[in-house]
Amino acid sequence: MGGSLSLLMRLQKAFNPTVVAKQDALLQIGILGAAQIAPSAIILPARNHPEVAVAAVACHDKGRGDKFAKANGVPHIYHGSNAYQELLDDSTIDIVYIALPNALHYEWTMKSLKAGKHVLLEKPSANNVEDAKAMFAYAEEKGLVVLEGCHSRFHPAIVRFKSIIDSGKFGKVVSFAGAFRLSKLLGDDDIRFNLSLGGGTLIDLGSYVLALTCYALSSELTGIVQAHADRLSDDPNADTSKIDLRTTATLAFPSDITSSVDADWHKPRYGPFGLLMGMPEASLTCVMEGGEVRLSNYVFPNIWHSLSVTPKGGKKQMEYAYAFEGSPKEQQYWSTYRHQLEAFVDKIKGRQPRNWVTPEESIKIMKWIDKLYENTGLGPRPSTSFVFVK
Ligand SMILES: NC(=O)C1=CN([C@@H]2O[C@H](COP(=O)(O)OP(=O)(O)OC[C@H]3O[C@@H](n4cnc5c(N)ncnc54)[C@H](OP(=O)(O)O)[C@@H]3O)[C@@H](O)[C@H]2O)C=CC1
Ligand SMILES: O=C1OC[C@@H](O)[C@H](O)[C@H]1O
C-alpha cells in the first residue's frame, strides 16, 4: 500500500478502531471526570479490547456528563457534587480511569484504592514525589494495580528506538535530547497553567520527556547540570509566576552522558498575526559514538512516526515500527493507549505485560520533576489540603 494510503488508513483506524467481540466476565471501567482525553485514552481502546467495558462516567455537571455519555456510548452516568464517590461505591466497577487535573490525582487514586479498585491514572502520576510515594505504597498494601498512563512507553516505536541504542551497534551513548514542544493554543485558564490544579509545562509535557529519556537510557539520572524556566508571569506575588511556559534543562547520567530536556508550551507561532501554530515536536535523539537515532512523534506514533538511523559519516536510513514483530496484523493500528490498556489488563489478570511503567519509575520521574522545579526557583507543585484517612 502506498505511503499516503496507509497514512489515511492509520488515521481512519485511530479514530474508528475495530470493535471486537467481548468475552464473558468483563472488567468494568468507571471514568472519573468527563475529560477531553478520555475518548482517545480509554473509550476507543476499550472498544477494541475483548476483556473490558466502559460501564460508567462520573461528572459534576449533568449536562456535560450526559453529552459525554451519549457521544461515547457510556451506559451509566453519575452526576452532581458526590458523583465521583458514588462511582467508587459502585461494586460492579473494577477499574477506575482518572483523567482529572494533576492536583486531584492523589486524592482520587487514594479513594479509588480504598474502594478496592485498580487505577489507570493519567500522567503525571501526582503533583509531587511525596504524593506519588503514598499512592504507590497504598496500592501495594491493597494488592491493587496503579499504572501511570505514560502511554508512549507502550508503543513498538519507542521499544524499537530503545533496542537500537541497547544493541550496541553504534557504540556507547554520548548524549541525548528529548523534546515536547507545542504552540500555546489553550487559554491561561486551562488546568495546565493553574498552580492549585498542579499546572506547569515541565510536569505536563516534561513528564513524557523525563520518562522516555530514563527509559531509553536505562540508567539512573544523577543530577541537574542546568535548568531554566520561562514563567507565565513575572509578578512574584502571583501563582502564575510559579507556572513555567517552557522549561529547558541539561541532565547528567552516568559515564558523562548529558541529556537535554525541552518542555515547551510556548513554541513560537508564525504567519500573519501569528495565526499559524508552530509544528508540534515530540522527539527523542540519541547520539552514540558511531551514529545517531531519532524518533519523531512519540505521542501519536500509530498515525505517523519516523525512526531515523544515521551511522557516523553515513547515510540516514528510515525505519517504522507500527507493530511488534510477529503480532497480529490488526495491531499495526493500535494506539499508544491501546497498547497501554493491553498491558494494564494483563497485569490485573496476572499475565506478564510486554512492557510496564513500574511504581519506582513513576516515583523517580516525580522526584526529578520536583528537583527541576526547585532548581528553576519555581518550587514543586504543592499538595492539596486533602488528608487521606484509611
Ligand atoms: N495521556 C494523554 O495523552 C493525555 C493526558 N492528559 C492528562 O489527563 C488529565 C486531564 O487532562 P484533560 O483531559 O485535558 O482535562 P480536562 O480539562 O478535560 O479536565 C478533566 C476533568 O477534570 C475535572 N476538572 C476540570 N477542571 C477542573 C477544575 N478547575 N477543578 C476541578 N476539576 C476540574 C472535570 O471533571 P467533571 O467532568 O467532573 O466536571 C473535567 O472533566 C491531566 O492529568 C493531563 O495531564 C491530558 C491530555 C492528554
Ligand atoms: O499528550 C499530551 O499533549 C498535550 C498535553 O497538554 C497533555 O497533557 C499531554 O498528555
From TrEMBL:
UniProt KW Electron transport keyword: no
GO function term, MF aspect, one: D-xylose 1-dehydrogenase (NADP+) activity
InterPro entries per the UniProt record, alphabetical: Gfo/Idh/MocA-like_OxRdtase_N, Gfo/Idh/MocA_domain, GFO_IDH_MocA-like_dom, NAD(P)-bd_dom_sf
Domain GFO/IDH/MocA-like oxidoreductase: start-end pairs: 160-269
Catalytic reaction list: D-xylose + NADP(+) = D-xylono-1,5-lactone + NADPH + H(+)
Location of the Gfo/Idh/MocA-like oxidoreductase N-terminal domain: 28-148
Pfam families per the UniProt record, alphabetical: GFO_IDH_MocA, GFO_IDH_MocA_C3
This enzyme's EC code(s): 1.1.1.179
Highest taxon of source: Eukaryota
Alphabetized UniProt keyword annotations: Oxidoreductase
Enzyme class at the top of the EC tree: oxidoreductase
Transmembrane segments: none
Family the entry assigns: Belongs to the Gfo/Idh/MocA family.
Protein name: D-xylose 1-dehydrogenase (NADP(+), D-xylono-1,5-lactone-forming)
